[in-house]
Amino acid sequence: MKFRVSCVQMEPKLGDKSYNLNKMEEYIHSVMGEYPDTRLIVFPELCTTGYEGEPEQFQELAETVPNGESMVRLGALAKKYHTHIVYGFAERDAVLKDVLYNAAIMIDEDGKVLGTYHKVHPFADEKRWCRAGASLPIFDTALGKIGIQICWDTAFPEISRCYAVNGADLLVISTNWEDPYEIAGWTKDSPINTHAEDWDLITSARAFDNTLHLVAANRVGDDGKALSFFGRSKILDPRGKTIASLDERKEGFITAEIDTAITQQKRAEYYCFFKDRQPEVYADIIRKY
Predict the structure, then answer these.
(1) Which of 45, 63, 126, 178 is catalytic?
(2) Burial grade of 28 (CB within 10 A; 0-12, 13-18, 19 or more)
(3) In the prediction, which pLDDT does 274 show?
(4) Least crowded by CB within 10 Å, which of 25, 98, 274, 288?
(5) Is the dihedral of CA 142, 143, 145, 146 positive or negative?
(6) Does 19 reside within a domain?
(7) What does the alpha-carbon distance between residue 62 and residue 94 come to, in Å, rounded to a whole number?
(8) CATH no. for residue 133?
(9) Is the per-residue pLDDT at 185 higher than 80?
(10) CA distance 181 to 241
(11) Cα 249 from chain centroid (whole Å)
(12) Greatest CA separation found in the chain?
């Protein structure tokens, strides 16, 4: 299936949900105004809240599915423009009210919440406020079957492979992948070791490993605390090659038409990873380290 996808690369404001939602709405209007055939728009991780918040701040800003403020507002635009929207937010458990997740939501082209993905691998200070996810839902959409992951999850090939063997047509990543922590000799303009290299390698590998298109939205800027974020949002083909990217440290969006039918074409030719798999040999992959 051929359709257009877009990634928004933005700088959220820590703790200011109103500002962030207004900016997200502006980007949706801009994307759809310039590319009205867009069928999927992807935003970064925790873009409604900012990243380096305190546990109390996330408790205040968290939303419960399916009637949270962001879902109502952005769902209305998804319906208006007949497009799917994925974005990161802090989700409050509907039953255990004090339990939060670092989540990404899938809203369909009718403005309906199809569900959320909970980050399976919370990173560093995230563990102070969110519980790890325990499932890998695949969202059945008008665009095909979509698997979502968040940031650090992308470093674990098992996540993408599980989606692939369960029939995903597209991998979507919502992320806040950051610069290295400050060390002697490192600057933003002259890094001695950049996490951007890791990011480029990992995203290409996840697409190539699974012969799937990959759409990834990363943020830029900082929250005025310890971390900064470099962007490099990208759309990759099933061989891990870049179709579109925004490699500068600035806000904006990228867009491209993809064809998910390429996956089956490639898998039937040279890229026969799935036909040649020997899963009975791989038992050690689930052994505790």
Answers:
(1) 45
(2) buried
(3) 96
(4) 288
(5) negative
(6) yes
(7) 11
(8) 3.60.110.10
(9) no
(10) 28
(11) 18
(12) 52
Instruction: State the burial class of residue 234 (Cβ atoms within 10 Å of its Cβ: 0-12, 13-18, 19+).
Output: buried
- Known catalytic membership, residue 288: no
Length of the chain: 289
Q: Report yes or no on 135 lying in a domain.
A: yes
Give the pLDDT score at 180: 82
Q: Do the Cβ atoms of 274 and 267 come closer than 8 Å?
A: yes
Active site residue 151: yes
Q: Is 284 within the bounds of a domain? A: no
Contacts of 58 (CB under 8 A, 6+ apart): 49, 90, 100, 129, 130
Q: Is the Cβ–Cβ distance between 22 and 69 less than 8 Å? A: no
- Tell which residue, 247, 249, 124, 122, has the closest CA to residue 181: 124
pLDDT digits (tens, 9 = 90+) for 42-63: 999 999 999 999 999 999 999 9
Could you give the number of structural domains in the chain?
Answer: 1
Can you give the pTM of this predicted structure?
A: 0.96
Residue in 47, 151, 178, 234 annotated catalytic: 151
Q: Find the distance separating the first CA and the last CA of the chain, reported in whole Å.
A: 40
Instruction: Return the DSSP state at 38.
Output: E
Question: What is the Cα–Cα distance from 229 to 249, expressed in whole angstroms?
Answer: 8
289 within some domain:
no
Identify whether 45 is a catalytic site residue.
yes
Q: Kindly name the residue from 7, 11, 47, 119 that is annotated as catalytic.
A: 119
Structural domain boundaries, residue 25: 2-276
User: What backbone torsions phi and psi does residue 108 show, to the nearest 5 degrees?
Assistant: -85, 180
